[in-house]
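4.2 Preliminary Data

To establish feasibility before requesting continued support, the project team ran the inverse folding procedure on a target of 120 residues. The structure was first converted into the token representation described in Section 3, and no sequence information of any kind was made available to the design step. The complete token record follows.
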């Protein structure tokens, strides 16, 4: 056997490409993405809550579970919001340090402004 036949592999199927793509996409998605996908499912499961008028404990349990789920979604959304805000502030500070915060850049900018200023 030659080296070429030893290294020959079977071709990947379309499902293997989909599987690897799904795994790669799953790694970069936050938890809140999946919680948002679950909202319609929880709402559909909660449609029957009106039928539990005769069973108050079942009604209270279902209502409590739904409220806990929506509280969890709200908490995750706020956490993501604050994370995005912190990232925005970090990047804003980095941009400032790279431009106006850099003394050499500020000096060159000041020289250009002075050169272009109208003489009186």
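Position-by-position output of the design step:
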């Amino acid at each position: 056997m030659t080296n070429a036949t030893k290294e020959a592999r079977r071709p990947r199927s379309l499902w293997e490409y989909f599987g690897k793509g799904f795994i790669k996409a799953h790694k970069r998605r936050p938890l809140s993405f999946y919680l948002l996908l679950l909202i319609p499912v929880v709402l559909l499961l909660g449609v029957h809550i009106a039928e539990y008028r005769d069973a108050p404990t079942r009604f209270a349990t279902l209502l409590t579970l739904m409220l806990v789920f929506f509280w969890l979604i709200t908490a995750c959304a706020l956490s993501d919001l604050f994370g995005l805000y912190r990232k925005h502030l970090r990047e804003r500070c980095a941009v400032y340090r790279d431009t106006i915060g850099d003394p050499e850049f500020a000096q060159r900018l000041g020289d250009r402004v002075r050169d272009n200023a109208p003489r009186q």
